[in-house]
Prior knowledge:
The complex is a heterodimer of chains A (234) and B (333). With 234 residues, chain A is mainly β. Chain A is 11% helix and 62% strand. Chain A has a single domain, classed as Porin (Beta Barrel), CATH 2.40.160. Chain A is elongated and about 80 Å long. In chain B, α1 crosses α2. Chain B starts with a strand and ends with a strand. Chains A and B meet through β2, β3, β6 and β7 of A and β12, β18 and β19 of B.
Amino acid sequence: MSTRLATLALLTLVSSPIAAMAQTEAEPPVRPPTVEIGGGIGWFGQADAGTRDATMTANQPGDPDRLNFFSATGKTRSGPAGIGIIGVNFSRHFGVEGGFQYSRPRLVIDVDEDVEHTPGVTIEGDAFDQFVAEGNFIYHFNQARFDNRRTVPFVLAGVGALRQKTDDGITENGTIYQAGLGFKWFSGISSRGRAGGPGMRLDVRYVFRDGGLDFEEDARRSFFTFTATALFGF
Amino acid sequence: MSRRCRVCICTTLLFVIASLQPSQAYLRLSDLNGSQRVFFTWANGRIPYFVSDQPVPGVSVDALEAALQRATSNWQAAPGSTMTFEYQGRTSARPLVVDGRNTIGFLSHPELEGVLGVTATIIDSVSGEVVESDMFFNSAVDWSVAGNGEEDRFDLESIALHELGHMLGLNHSALGYFEVTAGAARLAAAEAVMFPFAFDPGTIAGRQLKADDIAGAAEIYPDAGHRADTGAIRAHVQLEGRNAFGVHVMAFNPISGEMVAGFVLENGDALITGLSPGPYLLRVEPVDDDAVSSYFDEPPVVDLGFRNAFVDRLVNVQRGATAGPVEITLVAR
């Protein structure tokens, strides 16, 4: 008796997903909006800015070494960013988007390793303007939609142009390369199966920065960003 | 108008072969006319000079002329400045003879132990304009003009570059570091041609001007765009509730690696000019008490009794502007 009950329970468990899948396949597929626009806020993580040693020419014949007088190690503090995006989806899965970010990170410098044992110090620099213009490819996992198919996970990858401008007139340019993942949620799905209307997006990105404000030549730094964006799709 | 001139021996001592440990900065040659500080300068940035026709073992007059040619060209090529050294030919006159000519050559002064070169300048003490400037290299030491230097011989071009800096109106910089091992001090490194102590014999690293030297020359003889293209930092330094004097203030740009410095002079102020725009961190330190006379001729009122420190704020330098004053309060030791 108990064996029959267990078998029935197992059959029920196995058959339930099959029934659910059959139900899903019966519904029209959902497509992302043709056009998405949005704006929101982000949070970028702290990033190294490299180390620059204050050096002097060593008293040596030939090609002399450099003597380290002290070291300065920089980083840009984490902070908020403003974000604007516009995207175009050209299939159920693929889309492209252009975005713009503005933030005011702050440079912080740790000074230490002084050859004359001058006590080290952490110096807070002024905040500077940071602009990013980016372009990303998006892949939507439509088969993995959930929340009544209104929420779709996605991954993105793209590049961007970075411009950092300090209040003292220094401008540094660079390039960012990023990859990330997140979710988009739209409040409505049309009768033709297209998501749209007001929505929201959350994503996390891993960003490589090549160039920009840095104490070392040709340095490539990495950091995370998190963004939350209000969307409208149509 | 009376024209009062006097020989300024403050320009002299140079390149002692090892003493003690100073710090950093470019400093202009100056003299006090009453309470007014007068800075040395050449009218129109033109510096005519003669070469004394006395050779020394290892250095012909031709070789001396060639070394001076390279050294003067080096200064003339310094970015941001405009000045011209004008070679006038050979002379049978010796340096340090007051004859209205700027003469460069060798003199033997074995009693000046450790002194490699001397520049003596006569100025109009009202305007600071140079009337005559002579330079000699001490033939009591062994010299080299070899392209890669020679063991146990001092590099003439390096020392000439330093002495020519004095001729231009630069005093000593303290951008150097001595290390003391087993009770003996040795110059470990320097980052200014105008550092008052020479690299070891056989070393030619002193043939290259550094940012501190370049900033100093451009301060005296700026070209048309220099002041608009660069910025400055003014620091006001106090010790025990009064204005400090003689304190060394180094400015370091962690992005470019540029290192330039200045001294605190009157009113507790240090002005560091010729800085490329960007963020700078500041470091203050006393000059070593054994080296005070390398920087200041005046009565010894130089503040030495305080601790080295980094200033805990970053100073942003903008083109054509002076940042500050950055208020610095020293901690007595």
